[in-house]
Amino acid sequence: MKIAILSQQAALYSTKRLKESAEAKGHQVRVVDYLRCFMNITSHRPSIMYQGKPLNDIDAIIPRIGASKTFYGTAVVRQFEMMGVFTANESQAISRSRDKLRCLQILAREGIGLPVTGFAHSTKDIDGLIETVGGAPLVIKLLEGTQGIGVVLAETYQAATSVIEAFRGLDANILVQEFIKEAGGADLRCFVVNDKVIAAMRRQGAEGEFRSNLHRGGKADKIKLTPEERSTAVRAAKSMGLKVSGVDLLRSNHGPVVMEVNSSPGLEGIEAATDVDVAGKIIEYIEKNAATGKTRDRIPY
C-alpha cells in the first residue's frame, strides 16, 4: 500500500513513528508537506500536485494538520477524498473538532458530559456569562488556542471581568467554563482508534499550574480508565466522526467531562507513558479499512 503522511515536518516524533511503523509492515510511505500541495479542482478529474508531479498513486493518507493551518489542510484532505483516497480522519471531522464551539455544541447534543460552558459576543453580557458557569473561579479559553496557550484561570469575579474585556477588546472569541477544582490540575488523555480506546494516560500539571499540557511542563503516567470514562471517550470521538483522536477528560464530582477532542494527537507522550505501539495501531486500522479505496460516509452536520 502507498501511504502519504500529510505533515509539515518529517522530523516530528509522531510523523517519524507513523512512517517507521508503516514501512515496517511493508508499505511505501512518503511525508507530504500539505502546504506545498496545490489542487486542480476539475469535474471528474480532481488532482493534487506536489513538487511538480501529480499525487495520483496514493492509497491512503494520514492527516497531521496543524491547528493554525486547518483551512488549507482540510482542503487538501477533501481533495484526496474527491479522488477516492482513504483518509484516517476525514476533512469534515477534522474541521468539526477544530472549531471548539461547534465541537462542544455537538457533544452537548449527544448528551456527553461537559463542564458548564458559556459563550457571548458583547461585553455588556459579562455578568450573565459569569453567572452561567457558576461564578469565579472560572476558566477563560481562546477558541483558537492550542497546547494550553490562551487558557486563563480567573480566580475572582473582578479578574474574570478584566480578562474577558481584554480578550473581547482584541475581538478574540472566547469560551468561559466552570473550573473543575477537584481534578487537581490533572486530565486524562484517551487515545481512540476506530472507536476503541487503545491507550490512556494521566497528565498532571506542573507545580502551581492548572493546565496539564505536557508542552507546559506536565508529567504523564499510565492510567486505568473506568468503564464510564472509556465510554465517554469513544462517544466523543464518534460524535466528531474521528477514527483517530485524542480525547481529553477531567474527573469531576459529576462524572467524566470532555475538555477537547484532538484530531492530530501527538504520539510521543502517550507511547512513552503507556508503552503501547500507538503508531502501529493506527497503521493496522488503515490496513483493515483502506482496501476499498473509498472514503467513509460522512456525518451530515
Would you mind describing this structure in some detail?
By secondary structure, this protein is an alpha+beta fold. The chain has 3 domains: 2-96, Rossmann fold; 117-179, 2-Layer Sandwich (Dna Ligase, domain 1); 182-286, ATP-grasp fold, B domain (D-amino Acid Aminotransferase, Chain A, domain 1). It is built from 9 helices and 16 strands. The chain has helices at 13-24, 70-82, 91-98, 100-109, 126-132, 157-169, 227-240, 268-274, 278-289; strands at residues 2-6, 28-32, 38-40, 47-50, 53-54, 60-63, 86-87, 117-118, 138-142, 151-154, 174-178, 186-193, 196-204, 219-222, 244-252, 255-262. The strands form 4 sheets. A 5-stranded antiparallel beta sheet has the order 14-13-12-15-16, with helices on both faces.
Query: Can you summarize the main beta sheet?
Result: 5 strands, antiparallel
Low-pLDDT sequence parts: 297-301
State the name of the first-level CATH class of the largest domain: Alpha Beta
Q: Say which CATH homologous superfamily of the largest domain is assigned.
A: ATP-grasp fold, B domain
Query: What spatial order of strands do you see in the largest sheet?
Result: 14-13-12-15-16
Q: What's the rounded overall pLDDT mean?
A: 90
Percentage of residues in strands: 25-35%
The CATH architecture designation of the largest domain is 2-Layer Sandwich
Give the CA-CA distance, first to last residue.
31 Å
Examine the coordinates and then state which fold CATH places here, giving the name of the CATH topology of the largest domain: D-amino Acid Aminotransferase, Chain A, domain 1
Shape: globular
Radius of gyration: 20 Å
SSE sequence, one letter per element: EHEEEEEHEHHEHEEHEEEEHEEHH
Give the total of beta strands: 16
- Please count the helical segments: 9
Helix content: 25-40%
Number of domains: 3
Strand pairing plus helix content: what structural class?
alpha+beta
